[in-house]
Task: structure prediction
Amino acid sequence: MRKIVIAGNWKMHKTLDEVTDFLHKISEWEDAFQHKCKIGIFPPSIYITIALQQLQNNNIFVGAQNVHDEDFGAFTGEISPQMLSSVNCKYSIVGHSERRHIFGEKDDFLNKKVRSLLANDQKVVLCIGEKEEQREEGKTEEVLENQLSQDLKKIKDQHMKDVMLAYEPVWAIGTGKTATPNTAQAAHKFVRDWLTDNFTEEIARDTTIMYGGSVKPKNIESLIVEEDIDGALIGGASLNIESFTKVIELAEKKSFK
Ligand code: PEP
Result:
């Protein structure tokens, strides 16, 4: 059975004091709340080791929001898969729409990152999703297919157990507009069918596909009940301990009846 995953992407938010306070609160909450889903946070990279230390007795994973494909080198400002492994950080987001569209990261670079992470025994959360104009032009599936086929090029079947996907329509990220459950489900189903056609039925069945795009306590329940939605990657609502834990509690109630 696929694991439900709820993860928070903090983007470029929080000072050290705010991070420490959040980690303390989520650690206490997690001790008290017997959750069945997988919970994670992606803090700014400067706080990864602090988060790993503060959560060492909790069942919450900590990941990087971005990573380079090379292990070492003259790449000012970047961090590498090997560096993540060396601090025991085992997850990384690849291809977030802000990396694609603000920082201009292209699919061949994203594919190199995915391959390098997997070669370093890291787990990948690969984000894919269409822009508003692409959806309006009826190109959603074409965009998803292009991203998947390029970003997962040359990935072997046995490595897919370390890949999670996040369908994040760009028009829904940080905008307050959420895809309707039907719209999101249709995209997730398309992605799962693509996995069947390009990998195996078993891989398609077992791969977690999260939804991302203005997920909040008020909309998580209607999304999570959809057959192919296996969790959420959450930006804004993950910054606040009350809204993040509320989303997790509501998702759990609906998904493990
Ligand atoms: C995200 O950053 O991946 C995201 C989905 O953001 P938000 O929840 O704020 O739309």
Notes: Residues 9, 96, 168, 173-174, 212-215, 233-237 surround phosphoenolpyruvate (CB under 6 Å).
